[in-house]
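Let us work through a complete example step by step.
Step 1: write down the sequence.
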Amino acid sequence: MSVITLHSGETFEKVFLNEPEVDLHIVQEAGSHVKIHLINLETSGSRDVEILNTIIVEQQGEGCVTEVYALAYLQDEECVKTETHVQHSVGGGLSNQLIKFVLNDNSRGRFIGDLKIAKDAQKTEAHQTNRNLLLSETAEMRTQPQLEIYADDVQATHGASTGQLDKSALFYMQQRGISKEKARQLLVGAFMKDVIATISDEALRERLLNTIDGVVE
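Step 2: predict the structure and record it as tokens.
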């Protein structure tokens, strides 16, 4: 595992695109900023190959900002496991996690999210959200959010949901002349694009938005 220490005021920002494995441990000192994207839009397609993403972030200084975003669009027999561990050891920090999976065919996804706020980490704001969309009856998603809060003066939220496309939205769009296939593409694309929209690099952001339009069936 690669270990990176961010000194006071430093920024680490990186987009991991279709990597077979990400294994990263970041230690943040005061005022540092981490922004990570894990984007899996193309995998091997084999059930024998599991893409593994592991991100560990420790806020050890005051006023740190941690952002972790992940998006996986899976088809066939593809399998992605994303694991995040964010620890607030001192107060005054901010963390935000937005993790999304879209699963079709016989694909499998798994998310493990560990968020810890230590006793001395007062005035912390931390958010963890996992949303998953199943496009077939044979796709499988396992999600395991874990929230441990030992401080009493914090703002912390977490949520996880797994579901299918909104049938009422599909019907509404079809009533306005949009085909069922196109309506489905638009809804799946909209579900995915808010993760891509958080990428700072404008050229990469636009390229990935166009890629999503191409991969969504």
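Step 3: interpret the result. The mean pLDDT is 90.
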